[in-house]
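Problem statement: downstream parser choked on a complex file, so we are re-checking the raw output for the cytidine-5'-monophosphate run. The parser issue turned out to be on our end (a line-ending mismatch), but while we're here, posting the original submission so the record is complete.
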Amino acid sequence: MKGNLPMLAGKRILLIIGGGIAAYKALELIRLIQKAGGSVTPVLTRAGSEFVTPLSVGALAKSKVHEALFDLTSEAEMGHIELSRSADLLVVAPATADLMAKMASGRADDLASTLLLATDKRVLVAPAMNVRMWQHPATQRNLGVLRSDGVLMVGPDEGEMACGEYGPGRMAEPAVIVQAISQALGGGPLAGKHVIVTSGPTHEPIDPVRYIANRSSGAQGAALAAALRDLGAQVTFVTGPAVVPPPAGVEIVRVETAREMAVAVEAALPADAAVMAAAVADWRVANASGQKLKKDGSGKAPALEFAENPDILAAVSKGARRPRLVVGFAAETVDVVAHATAKRARKGCDWIVANDVSPATGIMGGSENAVTLISDTGAETWPRMGKDEVARKLAARIAEALR
Ligand code: C5P
């Protein structure tokens, strides 16, 4: 799809233009949405109108530009509630830190924030701000709130900023925003496809209060589920007790043990693809106690016996309802490629995403990953990048494979 404009034929976009130097890019965005067959109803915030004029926005959009909450004429023609619902999608570009804060706290003190609160449609936000403002804990907190409210995000990009600083904060390019709009409207390459993602650690009880676990944060699995969702997939996200919260817009199935995960995955079949990113415990405590184990004063430690857990990846790969594409992960500490290649054959999956989780790499529980993709054509090593980026790249490959 790269380079080609997606189809937005007949789609109505309510475009909220916030205040910021990136507002000039909103003009290009209007043009591209129209080129893809969509129409734009523009809303300009007071700050936005300091950067682009209502005249240029209205002329390009071939539409009235809405600016004020209490505009009698338009309230007579179309109230703000109706305005917020007559569109197929609300897009905020650029979204300033202030606009994001208002959205996160549910304020409605001007037309833009009122429309965002009153809408029953999905909202796509393209943040643009100074790097320090983006990285500020308050903005990051608001971002988390918006994500968990199901708000879609595109960007920001990293790069040189108009203010002379360097880092994340640049608004995504208009062509990329148009792609995100198309995906938000269900036009992604994975539209109509069902993908199961397993994620997080499992907890294997020793007694009612103690368990055996591992250091998986669930970050890679959550990022993958979000990336697949963003490409239009219907995602069933089967997650163990992870640190990282599950993404919005996916079906979440929470489990605790490997055996519960195996049942949940089986119940989620059939699927077009299964991506097993969970760090499933190989063993469970066979003699787990129904009551809390107590020291008996003898100085003798309880002897735990172990039983092997079901191998979910192998079972799905070799099962009767095998998805077209099955992807496993291999967390290794030595001889990563050799071990992962052997694992691919043993488990019967199509791809293995292998990574080195030695403590020195900081990958387990960290925000970055360095992976090697092993398929029937060999091993392909990707440079170290953010787990979000690994997820997007892998989701794009999955979309290609399911085409
Ligand atoms: O055998 P190992 O645990 O290294 O294999 C890792 C891959 O297998 C991962 O994709 C993991 O999600 C999956 N797995 C599983 N069920 C298990 C063990 C691992 O699905 N019991």
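For whoever reads this later: Residues 194-292+300-401 form a domain with the Rossmann fold fold (CATH 3.40.50.10300).
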